[in-house]
Amino acid sequence: MAIEQTLSIIKPNVVAKNIIGKIFNRFEKKGFKIISIKMLKLSHQQAECFYKQHISKPFFKDLINFMISGPIIISVLERENAVNFHRTLIGDTNPMKALKGTLRADYADNYTENGFHGSDSIESALFEINYFFKNNEIYSNKS
Ligand code: ADP
Ligand code: MG
């Protein structure tokens, strides 16, 4: 299977729980290399643009207000099959449906404040990584 990169976000509610180290430990234990990382507070415009595919959804306004409510941790993770593997690790979007042992089952507060974002395809990973990182800020292990 191919080595891939994916974008991972620890959302404001989980950053506020003071467990960032625990989350990265879980990624590392599952074989992810953390190849870039930053903490930032999104502007309203940055959050709207990042989630623009959801602009017409009823939850959009709540989602944006939540995403700008505090700092987030954004990272680029690398391993085989990274995109799908990371989605599986964080669990279902709806925390009520997230399987036991997934990050959302453990740390989500509700549907909107579900704690984590993960790219959903190779194409969106590429877009999302470029949205937050310059090429020279990413330390890939790929030769
Ligand atoms: P995912 O983050 O799993 O890729 P989506 O892209 O469908 O899920 O949605 C983006 C984010 O919007 C979700 O992570 C969640 O925070 C929020 N969201 C999605 N669907 C709902 C919903 N039905 N009610 C409330 N918030 C939602
Ligand atoms: Mg999504």
Task: Write a brief structural summary.
Helices cover 38% and strands 20% of the residues. It contains 7 helices and 4 strands, in the order βααβααβααβα. It has helices at residues 12-15, 20-29, 44-50, 60-67, 82-90, 103-107, 122-132, and strands spanning 3-10, 33-40, 72-80, 116-118.
What name does the CATH topology carry? Alpha-Beta Plaits
What is the percent of helical residues?
25-40%
Distance from N terminus to C terminus (CA atoms, Å) equals 15 Å
| Broad CATH class | Alpha Beta
Order of helices and strands: EHHEHHEHHEH
Mean pLDDT metric = 97
Instruction: List ligands, each type once.
Output: adenosine-5'-diphosphate, magnesium ion
Q: What kind of sheet is the major sheet?
A: 4 strands, antiparallel
Strand content: 15-25%
Global outline: globular
What low-confidence regions span 5 or more consecutive residues with pLDDT below 50? none
Radius of gyration: 14 Å
Domain count = 1
| CATH architecture assignment | 2-Layer Sandwich
Can you list the strand order of the major beta sheet? 2-3-1-4
Please identify the structural class as seen in this structure: alpha+beta
Function: Major role in the synthesis of nucleoside triphosphates other than ATP. The ATP gamma phosphate is transferred to the NDP beta phosphate via a ping-pong mechanism, using a phosphorylated active-site intermediate.
Pfam families: NDK
Protein name: Nucleoside diphosphate kinase
Subcellular location: Cytoplasm
